[in-house]
Sequence to fold (230 residues):
Amino acid sequence: QKEVEQDPGPLSVPEGAIVSLNCTYSNSAFQYFMWYRQYSRKGPELLMYTYSSGNKEDGRFTAQVDKSSKYISLFIRDSQPSDSATYLCAMIVTNAGGTSYGKLTFGQGTILTVHP
Amino acid sequence: DTEVTQTPKHLVMGMTNKKSLKCEQHMGHRAMYWYKQKAKKPPELMFVYSYEKLSINESVPSRFSPECPNSSLLNLHLHALQPEDSALYLCASSQGWGGSNEQFFGPGTRLTVL
Fold:
């Protein structure tokens, strides 16, 4: 079993739809959570960065973390064709003493297509 | 400015060649990373430099040799590569080495080994 599970899709939605992307994880030591967007043949772009359980909003994007369920989500409102990309969740471990190590553990990525 | 630049954008090399990939950031970040990404897979960590010292080597073959000449630059020297080393090589940087620091990626160098 992978430490981070992410449905690879592909996911196809019409323009204007609300998109929900999800990752589950098994290691409770993951404490920092990120969402990256990667366009074809480009580097990943950091979209959201969260630590606490709860919601974080930035424009059309909302990141949600539920540490008790080991589940994170990214919601995209009013999706646009320009949102078509691969979305990667990523996490970082923190040890019991609170020390963090910058090694990212990625999900497999979800391929999203928003069609006009 | 959250830009990490990488050169070249594309590189084709034979198995006997020696080449280098370059990465630069001017955000004052003290941690820099090399990742390798194969098609339809997430990035895989190769090396981490923290304060210009190699902190992590993820058991990468010696035909890949990283170098951090100063806090803004990161190189990856390539020698005697194999066709299976063809991939997108990504550089990233963060303020420091730790979970409270977001990692910003460059656009990558697409490497093809013939």
Remarks:
- The mean pLDDT of chain A is 91.
- The radius of gyration of chain A is 14 Å.
- The interface with chain B takes residues 8, 31-32, 34, 36, 41-46, 49, 51, 88, 90, 92-94, 99-104, 106-109 of chain A (CB under 8 Å).
